[in-house]
Each structure stands twice: as C-alpha cells, then as structure tokens.
C-alpha cells in the first residue's frame, strides 16, 4: 500500500506562518514588498545617476558599514551580477599572479575553477575536503598572493570560522549565504563578498563586497597595470563608481530597494548580533530535532562546522523527494537538497528573515508527513 505524497494534508495547527525555507532565493518579508510598492512613484523607473538612487546606494553602503562594524577606510563596493560574476571579476582585479582555494562543496569550487581557467594567472593551489566537512586553513603557499575562503558552503550546510592564514596574501571570502547571518571579524579578511538573495532577503543580480584598504590598493594597482579587463568586470571601475554611490551600468532598482529595507530592519532590531541570535535559535531547533529523530540526522557530523543559516538533514527509511512533494502541497517550499550533492536529504534555509518558530513548526510538519508515509507502507 502506498500513498500519493501530494495528497497528504498537514493539520493547520502544525503549519508555519510562512512556508518559504529556500536557500536562495530566500524568503522576502512582506513589509519589504509593501515598502517597494510605496516607493514606486519616486524611485522605480528613474535614472540611476540621479539623487534618489544615489541616496539609496549611499544608504546601503552606510548601513552595511554599520552592520559589519567596519573600520574607517573600508569601502562597500557593488556591481551588477551575482557572486558568479564576482569570481570572474576577481580573477581580473584581485588575484595578482596566483591564488589558493579551500574547496568543500559546489560553490567553493567555482572560484577555484575560474582561477584555473584564467590564462593570465598561474595554476591555483587547491585544498579540498569531502562534502560535509571543510579543510583546515594552513599557511599560505609560496607564490600565492590571494587566499580564497568560503564562509558558508550553501550546497552542503558547512560553515567555516574565518581566520587569516600566515603570510601576506589578501584574504578573499565568499560570504554569499553567510553575510548578515554568521559572525566574522574584519581583521581576519580583506574582501567579504556576497549577493543579496540569502540573508538580505532580496533578489539576485547584484554583488557587494566589503573591501579593506589593502584590498582597495590591490584593485587600484591592477587597474593601473596593462592587464586587459572587460569594463563590466573591472573592479577598479566598480570601486570608483561605488564611492560615488552608483554602479557602472544600470542596476535593478527593486533589488537595491529590497536590500536597503532588509538592512534597515536588521539594524533597527539590534544589528548583526540580533541576526546571529535568530539564526542560532532556528538552527538549534533543527539540529536538536534531527539528533532526536529516529529517521533524520544532521549531514554535517561535526557540530562546530554545522551552519546556522543552511541546515542539511539526511533521511533514512523515507524518500526525501516524497517528503518535499508533501510539504510543497501544503505550501511549504524549497526544502530540497542541493541537486549535485545527490543525497537523500532536506536542505533548510534559516536566514534572519525566517522566524525561528517557523523552523520549529517545520519539523512538526516533517514528522507528520513521515508518519503518514511510513504508516502507508507498513
């Protein structure tokens, strides 16, 4: 006897108030969307070179400076395209000759691949570990001028404590799913880059990077060299435009506005410490439930490497696909595992916009669905 997972009805009292648990794009708060609608008449459809948009970009840059506790001299640089675009830009404008990469999942591998494909750079040094773990950070290899770290591997739910390795290389950190939800110290890094469709509850198509004075000098140094670079990927052009509170080419104004509203919400509620508290509360719900469950377990075995913003949960005795189908039929969406990981797994986004109580409700919904599925096959 089997049951169609899409026919399972979860009792109303078990449902979360919002069923969006995607790991990017993530949940966008209703207040952000309402504010965007109100901003239509004086923002959307206007020139990005004029004061309304420049004031918006300036406020975003100031807000991130405050949220991250950056020292004087740091700059928030932004440009069109997401982290994928930034990897390409970094091969032109950050890596002088050779880079070193710590790879432990799909996204941490992409920058390494971009560096390996760049004909003007030496072969990168790549240190790998199995999915579900991360490599230990070691002293910088000889000839390396740029070290690439990943704060949170979105594909596997592994987070890395950021620390500057021995040596004088720039430390460049992919913080796409971490920025705004995990702690970090600016003294340990030089570039902390991300996209707004995770913790910042916005749409994609934009990259942002917190850049130290040393990083800015590297960008300007390479920009003055004879290295050819497309203008849209030129970090020296992006830096020049950013300090003028604009982007080189036309940005998506709705994306900027949603990002701005989320930053203000974060700051108004207590800043980065408050955001971290929310993600830790949510992830505590998830991992404690999984560890006590007879059919679920955290994929990341080392608790110190478990992400507070992306939770990966292995299932045994029940198909994750069936659980996801049943959840989606009840308007609980995007709990699927990362496709290339190929595990019988759920992946749960627990960014600051997600209510911790909703994560607790989600675990009750999963228990209900699994109960129905296993009873039908008993």
Write the layout of secondary structure elements.
Blueprint: H1 30-38, H2 51-68, E1 75-80, H3 83-93, E2 99-103, H4 106-117, E3 125-128, E4 146-150, E5 152-153, E6 158-159, E7 170-174, E8 191-194, E9 206-211, H5 213-224, H6 235-242, H7 253-268, H8 271-292, E10 296-298, E11 310-315, H9 320-329, E12 345-349, H10 356-377
Parallel strand pairs: 2-3, 2-4, 4-7, 7-8
Antiparallel strand pairs: 1-9, 5-6, 8-9, 10-11, 11-12
Helix pairs in contact: 1-7, 2-7, 3-4, 5-6, 7-8, 8-10, 9-10
Short description:
This protein has 378 residues and is α/β, with parallel strands linked by helices. It has helices spanning 30-38, 51-68, 83-93, 106-117, 213-224, 235-242, 253-268, 271-292, 320-329, 356-377, and strands spanning 75-80, 99-103, 125-128, 146-150, 152-153, 158-159, 170-174, 191-194, 206-211, 296-298, 310-315, 345-349.
- At CATH level 3, the topology of the largest domain is Aspartate Aminotransferase, domain 2
- What is the domain total for the residues? 2
Query: Average pLDDT, to the nearest integer?
Result: 96
How do the strands line up in the largest sheet? 1-9-8-7-4-2-3
Q: Ends: how far apart?
A: 8 Å
CATH class (first level) name of the largest domain = Alpha Beta
Q: Could you give a short account of the major beta sheet?
A: 7 strands, mixed
Helix content: 25-40%
Q: What oligomeric state do these chains adopt? A: single chain
Give the percentage of residues in beta strands: 5-15%
- State the low-pLDDT regions, or none: none
Radius of gyration: 21 Å
Query: N-to-C SSE series?
Result: HHEHEHEEEEEEEHHHHEEHEH
Continuous helix count: 10
**What is the architecture of the largest domain at the second tier of CATH?**
3-Layer(aba) Sandwich
Q: Globular, elongated, flat, extended or rod-shaped: what is the shape?
A: globular
Number of strands: 12
The CATH homologous superfamily name of the largest domain equals: Type I PLP-dependent aspartate aminotransferase-like (Major domain)
| Structural class assignment | alpha/beta
């Amino acid at each position: 006897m089997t049951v169609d997972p899409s026919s399972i009805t979860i009792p109303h009292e078990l449902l979360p108030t919002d069923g969006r648990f995607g790991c990017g794009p993530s949940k966008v708060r209703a207040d952000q969307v309402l504010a965007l609608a109100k901003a239509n008449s004086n923002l959307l459809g206007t020139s990005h070179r004029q004061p309304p948009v420049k004031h918006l970009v300036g406020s975003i840059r100031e807000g991130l400076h405050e949220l991250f506790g950056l020292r004087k001299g740091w700059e928030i640089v932004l440009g069109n395209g997401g982290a994928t675009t930034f990897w390409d830009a970094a091969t032109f404008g950050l890596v002088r000759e050779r880079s070193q990469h710590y790879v432990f999942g799909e996204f941490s591998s992409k920058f390494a691949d971009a560096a390996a494909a760049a004909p003007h750079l030496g072969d990168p040094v790549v240190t790998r570990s199995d999915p579900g773990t991360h490599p230990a950070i070691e002293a910088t290899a000889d000839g390396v001028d740029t070290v690439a770290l990943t704060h949170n591997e979105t594909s596997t739910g592994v987070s890395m404590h950021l620390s500057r390795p021995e040596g004088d290389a720039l430390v460049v950190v992919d913080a796409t799913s971490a920025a705004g939800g995990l702690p970090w110290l600016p003294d340990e890094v030089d570039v902390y880059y991300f996209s707004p469709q995770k913790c910042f509850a916005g749409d994609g198509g934009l990259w942002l990077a917190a850049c130290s004075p040393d990083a800015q000098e590297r960008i300007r140094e390479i920009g003055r060299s004879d290295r050819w670079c497309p203008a849209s990927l030129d970090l020296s052009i992006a830096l020049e435009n950013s300090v003028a509170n604009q982007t080189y080419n036309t940005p998506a104004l709705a994306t900027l506005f949603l990002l701005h509203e989320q930053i203000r919400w974060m700051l108004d509620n207590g800043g980065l410490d408050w955001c971290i508290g929310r993600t830790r509360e949510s992830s505590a719900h998830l991992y404690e439930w999984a560890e006590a469950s007879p059919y679920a377990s955290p994929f990341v075995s080392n608790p110190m490497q478990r992400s507070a913003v992306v939770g990966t949960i292995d299932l045994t005795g029940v198909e994750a696909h069936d659980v996801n189908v049943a959840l989606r039929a009840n308007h609980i969406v995007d709990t699927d595992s990362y496709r290339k990981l190929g595990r019988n797994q759920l992946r749960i986004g627990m960014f600051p916009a997600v209510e911790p109580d909703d994560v607790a409700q989600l675990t009750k919904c999963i228990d209900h669905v699994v109960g129905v599925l296993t009873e039908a096959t008993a």
